[in-house]
Amino acid sequence: MEGAGHRGRWNKKKPIGTILLLLMCMFIPTLTLLEPSEDQKCPHGDYLSKNGICCNKCFPGLRLEEHCSATGQRSKCTPCPDKQYSDKLNYFPKCFTCRECKATKHEEVVSQCQKDQNTVCRCVIGLYKSIIDSETYECLKCTKCRENEKEKQRCTSENNTVCECRENYYRAKGKCEPCKNCTAECKHHCLNPSILNTTASKPDEYLINIIAGVAVFAVLLLMLVVLITYVATKRSTKKKLLKRSTQPSDVSPDSCEQVLVHSEESSDNKSVTAAPQSPVSEQELSNLPDCVPLEIKIPDLIYTVLDLVPVLQVKQLVRFLGVKDTEIEQAEMDHRPSREAHYQMLRVWAERGSRAGGGGQGRMLPWPLLHELLDKLRKIHLGQAAEELETKYGIQ
To answer: Sign of torsion, CA 378 319 329 29?
Structure first.
């Protein structure tokens, strides 16, 4: 009887303890957001070391050898080794490797690598730099102006040749054609007396040319309208087919919405509760409606995003997704070329969110995290990329 009394008192206290634990878990993220950031804690030009002290960053040409040990003391910085450089304030333990100008790629040295500046290369004479991305380029042969063309701008190591049509010629279908009549492309040549005489002597031919031009314009306009209608119809049909394939007849849209809401709520509960959750069985997965994707593999999603997002906007996207500047710099230092660094930045965001949402060792992306990605893409004016992802993963 005494043991039964103890069990009764324990059962009354257990709900209270559970509620207190849940409240603590709810307020911990709020308190974390209220903490000042690294930039707020330390003055400009300093960084927050692992021991919680604001230390000065190393100047360009130096690398960090040892953190400062107390407030007011200086970090220990040492010069970069040979064939390495650091071109900005930093607290990296290693310097960057200097670029090598490769003769096999038709490059020559403009300025040698210094401790605070990377090697500057350029294409040899007769070739120009064709940009691939922010970090990569290739040297291509300068273009030569074709028949009836003249140089408007000479080829340099940075820019290709710019050609234009010779006098009394105009460009049509990629070629320079002679101005035989006073057409729209040749109005600036109509002061030529020979052209004026030809036009005046043949008024009927001139009128026929105008009518023909109007007819061609009307046909092109009609073709454009037909093309726009075809594309719009194709997209509408694709969305309808996708909607039918993702919503079977025995599953209503309301049930799909309820399942998605339930999955989001369950992912939120997993981030609050410390106890491990049992994995979903294959039978439970088979009972889900087709509108809910069973898994979103992180590598597949990242490569898709890198294909859709312009190279120069990837850093802006990952900052919107909460990736810190220190993590971005570390990814750039550890991974080259830039596509591998951008992959690592997105991987930091995806795996962090996957672990927080119970994604299973950070390899599967939780469903709410995909919605966050779509929202950030639209905020930086990449709605087309968001629509492509929605089509790929069947989001209506």
So the answer is: negative
Cβ-Cβ contacts under 8 Å for 42 (sequence gap 6 or more):
48, 54
Q: Which residue has the tokens 């009927």?
A: 204
Q: Give the strand pairing for 175-178 and 169-172.
A: antiparallel
- Residue 47: phi, psi to the nearest 5? -140, 160
Q: Is residue 135 part of a domain?
A: no
Whole-number percent of the chain with pLDDT over 90: 33
Q: Using alpha carbons only, how large is the chain's radius of gyration in Å?
A: 33
In this structure, the chain runs to a length of: 396
HSE-CB of 151 using CA atoms within 13 angstroms? 9
For position 369, which CATH number holds?
Answer: 1.10.533.10
- DSSP character string of 61-87: TEEEEE--SSTTPPPEEEEPPTTEE--
**Per-residue pLDDT tens over the stretch 112-137:** 999 999 999 999 999 998 988 877 88
Using CA atoms, how far apart are residues 227 and 204, in angstroms rounded to an integer? 35
Question: Token pair of 193, please?
Answer: 């007396």
Q: Is the dihedral of CA 107, 108, 114, 116 positive or negative?
A: negative
In whole angstroms, give the CA distance from residue 215 to residue 171.
20
Question: How far apart are alpha carbons 268 and 22 in whole angstroms?
Answer: 12
Q: Quick one: which of 304, 318, 385 has its CA closest to 348? A: 318
Average pLDDT of the chain, as a whole number? 76
Q: Residue 57 maps to which CATH number?
A: 2.10.50.10
Three-state DSSP state, 388: helix
Q: Determine the structural domain holding residue 323 and report its residue range.
A: 253-271+284-392
pLDDT of residue 36: 44
Q: Name the residue type at position 91.
A: Y
Confidence check: pLDDT of 188 > 90: no
Q: Which residue has the tokens 């304030």?
A: 89
**Residue 114 DSSP label:** B
pLDDT tens digits, residue range 328-349? 888 888 887 788 989 998 999 9
* Sign of the Cα pseudo-torsion (240, 246, 249, 254, in order): negative
**Closest of 361, 358, 362 to residue 277, by C-alpha:** 358
Asked if residue 34 is part of any domain, the answer here is no
- Residue 196's contacts (CB-CB under 8 Å, 6 or more residues apart) are 182, 190
Question: Between the CA atoms of 289, 292, 295 and 301, what dihedral angle is there, to the nearest 10 degrees?
Answer: 150
Specify the pLDDT at position 1. 45
Q: Which three-class secondary structure state does DSSP give residue 392?
A: helix
